[in-house]
Write a structure and sequence with these properties.
- With about 300 residues, this protein is an all-alpha fold.
- It has helices at about 5-25, 30-40, 45-60, 75-85, 90-130, 135-160, 165-175, 180-200, 210-240, 255-295.
- The N and C termini lie far apart (about 85 Å).
- InterPro entries: GatZ_KbaZ_carbometab, PTS_IIC_man.
- It comes from Olsenella profusa.
Amino acid sequence: MIQWWQILLLTLYAGFQIMDELHWYSSAGSAVFSGFITGLIMGDMATGLFIGGSMQLTILGVGTFGGASRIDANSGTLIATAFAVSSGMDPEQALAALGVPVAAILVYTDILGRMANTFWGHACDADVEKMNWGSYNVHYWMGAVSWCLSRMIPVFLALAFGQGLVDAITAALNGDLAWLGAGLTVAGGMLPAVGFAILLRYLPVKKHVAYLILGFVIAALLGTAFTSISGVAGDLATTAAASGVEILGGDYNGLSMLTIALIGFALAYIYYKQGQAVPTAAIASGAEGDDDDEL
């Protein structure tokens, strides 16, 4: 059960995070930070960071253009983390069943916040024409209040009155609808991949495919290295606990032929593209020289 003080703190944070996203840019208005703060308040930072990180990856390629509204991933992360911890819901189920739907629904409250700011913006314009600076300050801050309320009200209502609904959903997903719960778990695990796909759709992948390959390979190698380091650390702890037996071991995985081939292909492709760029630059400079001679 979510306590009243947790509801209060999370509601206040919901208003703070949208202001940070619009004005201060301290990264406190990001999905991963929302998961961290919510997990800290709810007492389960691991779940908060997992849901926040997954949501952050999901929206990697999602942006706003021309002031358009987008899904509120921060509030979605907050709700999903709070109910996942309080109800014992699987984090991936919470992400798919609560986080993403809530983030999508809050597009409408985002639109309401923008409409309210249109009203306050016109009021500020009128105050400037009349040089009424006292009223201007009031109307300016009312714009901030409308933005905060566009997140605080739905988050408060969900946290205060949605516990029973979430408990019922959790019981159903773990009972008669276990097949649906398993599907939502799979969908929640796939969402970060969807975010990567959207991001790659907008990036110049064809032009820089070699760097893309190197990035993924290096990330995989670092994961292997960290796993081996963890194994060594465990061996050291075991050795220290043993009475004077100094044995150091570790399970180091060698590079596969596929890994070596991908690195070689990426480096060869970079060398090939650089080789193509040199003659092109030389031809262009030669053409400029001919033009100068003609002059």
